[in-house]
## 1
Amino acid sequence: MRLHLVSKNVASEIAAKLCDSVGQTLVGKSKSTFKGLQSIVKESLEAQLTRILSPNRRVDVLRDVMTANESGRPFTVVFCGVNGVGKSTNLAKICYWLNGNDKRVLIAACDTFRAGAVEQVGGVPLARPCRVFCFLCCCMAH
């Protein structure tokens, strides 16, 4: 299971912790069928992922935006991930929601290996115009 998680871009340390915690839930349990064991593993994995991904504090983005603005600081959100995980889609949703709450949005597009970041973000449907900047990060493999 650890190798499968790592192959799906889960950090190796997190994959190991997940496997260890799932293993702990299996200790002392016996199931007569593979289906029963599979459901225990799935439930345990869901519980551990929920625990890891749940914030330690209540998240109120509008409150955090206003607090940052009152301090004279911008409120910054970073969307990062591998191709196809929905970064642009979620960016559009957050921008639309912030615009609907009378907040100004500045989008800075960045891409490591291609120059299409600005074009992709430029196609994001928003309630009102946003300023879009482009940063191109060049990473060289050694």
## 2
Amino acid sequence: SGTSELWLTETMLDNMAVLTILIGMALLSEGSAQIMRIATPTPAQARYQDTDFIALIHFNMGTFAHNGDPCCDPTNWDVKAPYATGKTSDPATFNPTKLNISQWFDSINGLGANIAILTAKHGCGFGLWPTNSTLPDGSPYGYNVGAKGAAIQHDVLRDFVNNATANGVGYGFYYSIMKNFYLCRSFSGTDSCTKTVLPGQHNYTQDVYTKIAQAQVTELWTNYGDLTEIWVDSGLDGLQDLMVHLQPQAVGTPKNPTGWCGTESGHPSKDVGPGDVWSTGSGFFGDPNSSQWMPKFCDPQLFQEHVWFWEPNLHVRTLGMMIPIYHDIVGRGMVMELAFSIDRDGLVDPTHEPVYKALGAWVRSCYGTPLVETSGSGNEFYLTVPEGATFDRVQIQEDIVTGQRVREYAVEVSSGAGWTSVAAAKAIGRKRIFLMNSTMTATSNTTLRLSLSNAIATPNIKQFAVFKPCPSE
């Protein structure tokens, strides 16, 4: 009888242990599932967000006429406009006599951009490579470098790719699928020649037009290696599957999407609104509850005027103007795709070059060496500031490889007499910069605290850092 009771007790205990293990495994599985549901970047998106700056290079037929989208129009197509160097219908008008793409990379490297995008074809329809695509009658496309009568006979894109590779910079191409003035397609892809077809223009059916565009992007997405980023403006016209098939590793595709911030001014807080920006979900601010990773970017110009292609007598933004733009874009977790407007010589304008280099130098000087920093996993982080050091800003970064996990947090400072708020927000993401209202001087016990009060999983902080005041501000 005692043996039976002992056996029964042991059996019950064994069953309870098994049940406890099963419940624990179920809870662990549920927790793992929750973590699995956290949106994370693809390798292409993580590569994209590993830089503050991308060089968005505008250099095409519009450089030799005027800015626009398209830059070609009835005022310059079959006549030499006063502002242009020739007829924009003539491939010979694209004639950068001092073209030196290696000179571009002096400014790209100086800025600190590690991805560069070149306008392979913009709204005019002119191509910067010797395309083998043909018109329906079998004749050459005819409106590109290397074409009969073109001033430039070599492959500008190949030169660009070679220079990017030599400089360790990722590269990609901008190609406007929907718009092509040469082939009578407007910004939205509609027929722009319903009333008049100008000399040198060609007007085809939509199917024929799409076949030409498909042939050209197939060349771009096949002949120049692995692209880091693809820019397609105004629509994909059914070519999204081809894009993903030929360039699966590139960002800017349906497989690896990015999201626009809603303005090209450089001041998204003013134009779109202040507040938290998420690397998940669509829309200008993103959506913290989305299961899709979608890095956000802003694309300002260096010109004070809203101009992409180089024009004479415009005003260039100064370093003092670019610093607030940096904080409003990069400091809120976005990537800055900054315009490079190559001039008619084929060079970075001598008035532009020092601004790119000064901005890059300023970022490295300001945020390259923190007074003190920490990193790790958890919900609270502390920084002890060296006595006598002055500081006026903090920078926080999540390790976005594991997702954007933080949902609410605060930064506080104490010198031994309680905590004073420095900043409070919801999103961190790839980078968040907070400028303090005034400069502080650390005492013997000055401490900053990062308190992560709400997160969907254990926060992984790549950097929590405090910095001294920056020059040129």
## 3
Amino acid sequence: MILKTGILLFVLQIVQPKATISNNGYENIVVAISPDVPEDANIIDNLKELLTKTSEELYRASRKRSYMKSIRILLPQSWTYSADPAVAETAEDAEFVVNTVNPAYGNNPYTVQNGECGDSGDFTH
């Protein structure tokens, strides 16, 4: 089980498809950090640790049938953290968004879903 996490600079580009699964590994998962979040390198380290543990748990829970194979973390352009520039990823493509505290949900995760019942969500906060 391999988790490859790349750090990319948040740059608006053309739209790219959402995450896909290939050979039991979810690929091209995009995590975007909102420009409203103050720059903090610990956020990136904490995200890497959280996503690695999440992938391990998914692997165990699915009886070794799926895991997170590749994840890209998009940083706000205003951050000075050294990262590779985004190629085709945008915040709109993100499956997960790191943002400031939500007045209704606090720091609890929630999924934004604007489609019909049974449709996949837009992203998880």
## 4
Amino acid sequence: MPGEVIRRTEAKAYFANERTFLHWMNVSVTIGSISAALSGVAGHAHRHWGDDYTSSALYVRVLSMFMLATSILIACWGGYNFNHRANMLTLKLDGPYDSKVLPAVLAVTLVSSLLVVFSGAVVRLHSDS
């Protein structure tokens, strides 16, 4: 047909899509592991260090559940983006192939989690003095 352009999708685009998916899964597993460690520490503190740490353990558990939910959302979003991009590559559609929302959400979530942990440590240090 006149005017029809045949597009060729290179193999490196498929590999880049898989590599991006694996990176998001790595981030998800890392955040989930940190969440599990925080939850374990909170349970240990609650059982073995007495009632003084009960309120702190509650904050840490809430933070760990928030991070676990974030980890699950990142895994789901990474899987969705992988399938969406793979379909776009198979159909030889033009982009956009980038994700502008998830990196911003991830950065805000991690920074706020670190700020909560840091502020809790500062408050605890100040109350011990």
